[in-house]
Specification:
Elements lengths: L3 E7 L1 H4 L3 H13 L3 E7 L6 H10 L4 E7 L6 E8 L6 E6 L6 H15 L1 H17 L20 E12 L6 E10 L5 E14 L4 E17 L7 E18 L8 E19 L4 E12 L3 E5 L2 E6 L2 E12 L1
Parallel strand pairs: 1-2, 1-3
Antiparallel strand pairs: 3-4, 4-5, 6-7, 6-15, 7-8, 8-9, 9-10, 10-11, 11-12, 12-15, 13-14
Helix pairs in contact: 2-4
Length: 320
């Protein structure tokens, strides 16, 4: 805070009375606790320029001189000048004969505070501006935080897929595509389609395995912009369409057979982000068909399509 220092000049007779002390206290109370009032004695014939020089020597903001217009001290003249060359001000205060000196000093102090009110307001404004312009010590300016990443609740996946039959025939390779919705950070829903193609050698038949899937994705490590790796468990209910197409030299045209079976799969997926919206995905798990498929050629059973398969998949997931 920029201090306001006031130098008050009185004659030697007043210096030994309660008047100067009461004057100083009243002015300081009216102008604020950071205002300092100093009392000095001066001869009555000292010119105003000399008063200004005295104030500058005391590092005062303003100089006030009290003179009495009569010997009974019934009327006091208060003159105030600024040490920075501002305008001079004056006021005359009349007292009753019975007024104690302390009350006279308090009255002069309040008038002094009123005359110096403009300087006091300017001082407070300068202090306010200085606080606004200077940052507190130890404060480090920093750039505003980046805007949050947009929420991405949907994803498309596309992958190559292979299924290896366990305990029978029916292995094949192909691909899968799916749409995912992830309302939270760890749980999502998925619908998808799959197609795998293979051969059943003993029946000289081409095998086609199609499926429509719907299920859930549970993220053990959820995907985030600041994290490159994600880990999830995926489980689907599947409607399988299994078909065989047989053509041999003794057949005039291909013989086809197909049926629908319910099924399910469960996979572990690992995702590696290559950008905030695109990730590589690798998965491994199993698939089971809830039903039996026997393969007949000329009314003779030659094989059984295994209901259980080990599944491997690899591709991409794009979030939006």
């Amino acid at each position: 805070m920029i201090a306001l220092v006031i130098l008050v000049l009185v004659d030697a007779h007043d210096a030994a009375t309660p008047l100067p002390g009461a004057l100083a206290r009243a002015a300081e109370e009216a102008l604020g606790s950071d205002v300092s009032v100093s009392i000095r004695t001066v001869a009555s014939d000292v010119a105003t320029p000399a008063l200004v020089e005295m104030g500058r020597a005391e590092h005062a903001t303003a100089v006030a001189r009290i003179t009495w217009t009569d010997e009974q001290r019934a009327e006091a003249r208060l003159d105030v000048v600024s040490t920075d060359g501002g305008p001079a001000r004056s006021s005359t205060i009349a007292f009753g004969a019975s007024d104690p000196l302390a009350e006279r000093g308090r009255a002069i102090g309040l008038v002094l505070a009123a005359l110096l009110a403009p300087e006091n307001r300017a001082r407070l404004e300068r202090a306010k501006t200085a606080r606004a312009d200077v940052a507190p010590a130890g404060t480090v300016a920093s750039a505003p935080p980046p805007p949050p990443a947009p929420a991405r609740h949907f994803a498309l996946d596309a992958a190559a897929e292979a299924g290896f039959a366990v305990g029978g025939v029916g292995s094949g390779a192909g691909g899968t595509i799916g749409l995912r919705w992830q309302p939270g950070s760890r749980v999502g829903l998925r619908i998808g389609m799959q197609a795998r193609f293979g051969e059943v050698g003993v029946a000289e038949a081409a095998a086609t395995n199609l499926g429509a899937a719907a299920g859930m994705v549970l993220f053990l490590i959820p995907p985030e912009d600041r994290r490159r790796f994600a880990l999830a468990l995926r489980a689907d209910a599947i409607l399988l369409y299994e078909s065989l197409s047989h053509l041999s030299p003794d057949d005039a045209e291909a013989v086809r057979g197909a049926h629908l079976l319910p099924g399910a799969d469960a996979l572990v997926e690992g995702q590696l982000a290559v950008s905030p919206t695109l990730s590589l995905v690798l998965g491994a798990g199993s698939e089971v068909a809830f039903g039996r498929t026997d393969v007949f050629v000329h009314q003779e059973k030659v094989a059984e399509i295994a209901p259980f398969r080990v599944v491997l998949t690899g591709g991409l997931v794009a979030r939006f």
